[in-house]
Input
Amino acid sequence: MRLTTRHAANLGLLTAVSIVLTRIFGVVLPIAGVGALRLSFGEIPIILAGVLFGPIGGGLTGLASDLIGYMINSHGGAFFPGFSISAVLVGLIPGWILHKKRDSLSWYQVGATVLVTDLVTGIFLNTLWLTILYGQGFFVILPMRVLARLVTLPVYTFVVFWITRAYRSYRRGTNH
Output
């Protein structure tokens, strides 16, 4: 990825939107007395960064969103680097799979990529990090996390598909 001023500005904007969606509009729900489930849409801008600007852009956006977001509002929890790894992967995986196809994406491609990303990061890794951090059983936390992902999966798919389609139209109209 060639980092131009335009790319840096767009990635910064996506980082800011992710922080706002996660830290301000996100809701933390307790499971077994631990704040183990956060409902937010802060991953959408990170996924978009990967799809639109490549895996490096997506990974950097995920890392910046996690680190800066934690400094702004920690939700009362301790910093844990595992969540930063997950945030990087949320941008890296969709960028790696979809970036080169971004001008002709189908619902199926976006949905499958969001599903793979959610399985790896949201369901497996983040549940593992919470298990390590709070000492709760993996399978105690897992069912509610899967349920939350069943809600977010169609929303993420729709929004990412819709915005990439709008971006494609914008690029055609401005000859970039």
Q: What stands out?
A: Residues 5-174 form a domain with the Arp2/3 complex 21 kDa subunit ARPC3 fold (CATH 1.10.1760.20). The mean pLDDT is 91. The chain has one domain: 5-174.
